[in-house]
Amino acid sequence: MTLFIIMGASGDLTKKKLIPAIYNLIKNKNLKNFAIIGISRQEFNTKSLLKFYKSYIKKPDERIWNNLAKRTYYIKADFNDEEKFKELSSLIPKLERKHNLNGNRLFYLATLPEHFQLISNQLNKFKLAPQNKTWSRVVFEKPFGHDLSSAKSLNNCLKKVFKEDQIYRIDHYLGKELVQNIATLRFTNTILEPIWNRKYIDNVQITINEDIGVEQRGDFYDKYGALKDVIQNHALQLLALTTMESPKQLTEKKIRDEKVKVLSSIPKINDVVLGQYNGYTNEVKVPKDSKTETFVALKLNINNERWKKVPFYLMTGKFMKEKLASIYIEFKKAPCLLFDGICNFQSNYLDIQIQPEEGFYLQINAKTPRSTDITPIKMDFCHSCTFGPNTPEAYETLILDIINGDQCAFIRSDEIEEAWKIIDKIKKPKPQIYKKRDIPEAAKRLIKKDSRTWHLNVNVLSK
Question: Has domain 2-141 been given CATH number 3.40.50.720?
Answer without folding.
Answer: yes
